[in-house]
Amino acid sequence: MSSILRDMLFLSVVLAFVFAVPGTWAAGRSDAIGEFAGHADVGTVLHAGSVAYDAGTKRYTVSGSGENMWASQDAFQFAWKKVSGRAVISADIAFVGAGKEPHRKAVLMMRQSLDSDSPYVDAAVHGDGLTSLQFRESKGAATHEVQANVIAPKRVRLEWDGKYARLWLGDKKGWHFSGAAQPIELTGPFYIGIGVCSHNKDVVEQAVFNDVHIGEPAVASGEQKLYSTLETQALASTDRRVCFVTPTHIEAPNWMPDGSALIYNSGGRLYRIPVTGGTPEVINTGFAVKCNNDHGISPDGKLLVISDQSREQGQSLIYTLPIGGGTPKRITPVGPSYWHGWSPDGRTLAYCAQRNGQFDIYTIPAAGGAETRLTDAPGLDDGPEYSPDGRHIYFNSERTGRMQIWRMKADGSDQTQITRDEHNNWFPHPSPDGRRMVFLTYAADVQGHPPNKDVQIRIMDLTNSRIDVLARLFGGQGTMNVPNWSPDGKRIAFVTYQLIP
């Protein structure tokens, strides 16, 4: 056989292999279209995708197959260009036809590579209108999301400021921050573009992208605007959902006993809002109009407990009042006192208080009376919260030189360290079944519990001491200072923040 025939035979075998194996050709294909340098099927698809561009209307019609964009692997059609540094992409997105899968996805995406398991972040509009910020933090890791509380927005924008990715939603009045934000690392040149996944390997779906714009986000040139986002997170899936976003400062959510609403503080007042979102309603707290972020609900659901600074020269005092609002009843004789826990039998309150220059853990009868000091170690002891059986109190203490989680018996005896790591750990909240505990984690170099820091919400399995990260976010003071588990133990609530130009 001649060398020419041999080479031709070899080439035919290679091409047959490439086109026989779905997805194999994706990374090598590069067809410029519109302002995109190329488009390709990422991952394994049974039906090749395509991109059509109308130069007159500057409209892209993307057809994509693929089983999903989730877990550790993605499969979808992607039109892309390469950029470096801070970036933003926006578009109007509409699906073509009724579709077969309610969770088909049309996305605006930033992606480190065309590998199916690449780190990425996207603004995903689903066939049923669900809109979310999806992300994979590292190669091969699981995908997570923050769901917006707006269904089927007219326009979508994804921006990355070099550290945090944010989802914006647009309407006739302009752009609105969705509340969804996530730290993500993209290094060197990365891919930015539009894509479609059918969410069904046997189906091809289409979406139209109008008015696509790619550029750079605004640069802070002065004072930045603080946005607060009230979120919930499901423990089973770790999916997060925005309940409420506001350009004001809010803090410290508690769950109502029936799980239907959340209570938070803002500007010295307490507010109630449905978990599904809506308009917050102020709770009548009488003269107490300087409530801080240390508040909660009695085990029987009949009373609120607040820490308020309206009297006694601004020192925080603890009061109780009816759950629906009313006149506060003073409980602690002196201040400053900051509530954190209510015993399961409803008889005792646990709190952090400063006495003679020292912050320690105290308890007091819920009806009022003499307080009992439980800790006396040097340094700050804070955040006391009862275990569901009432036998123990969890708290955080810096007695070892770094803030860690501790536990003691309800009478203050047998004080035992629970976490031992290089972080600073605050505000332990045991789950309703007593098997798990969530807490807030700062970096090792952060002193105290300040606001506006990169923090983590971590969870410990109390049966084996395993610790996992539930969420990475911008927060700190106000994120989850007080009990934040849903009554059924399936979700937690917290507040995240963003400083935006």
Report on the architecture of this protein.
This protein has 501 residues and is mainly beta. It has two domains: 3-215, Jelly Rolls (Sandwich), CATH 2.60.120.200; 225-500, TolB, C-terminal domain (Neuraminidase, 6 Propeller). The protein is 4% helix and 49% strand. The protein has one helix at 3-20, and strands at residues 38-42, 50-54, 59-64, 69-70, 73-74, 76-83, 87-95, 105-111, 120-126, 131-136, 143-147, 155-160, 164-171, 174-183, 190-197, 205-215, 225-234, 240-246, 251-255, 261-266, 269-274, 281-283, 296-297, 303-308, 317-322, 329-330, 337-342, 348-355, 358-365, 372-373, 381-386, 392-397, 404-409, 416-417, 424-430, 436-442, 453-461, 466-475, 491-500. It has a ten-stranded mixed beta sheet with strand order 1-6-15-8-9-10-11-18-17-39, with no helix packed on it. It starts with a helix and ends with a strand. Residues 1-28 have low confidence and may be disordered.
Tell me the layout of helices and strands.
Elements: H1 3-20, E1 38-42, E2 50-54, E3 59-64, E4 69-70, E5 73-74, E6 76-83, E7 87-95, E8 105-111, E9 120-126, E10 131-136, E11 143-147, E12 155-160, E13 164-171, E14 174-183, E15 190-197, E16 205-215, E17 225-234, E18 240-246, E19 251-255, E20 261-266, E21 269-274, E22 281-283, E23 296-297, E24 303-308, E25 317-322, E26 329-330, E27 337-342, E28 348-355, E29 358-365, E30 372-373, E31 381-386, E32 392-397, E33 404-409, E34 416-417, E35 424-430, E36 436-442, E37 453-461, E38 466-475, E39 491-500
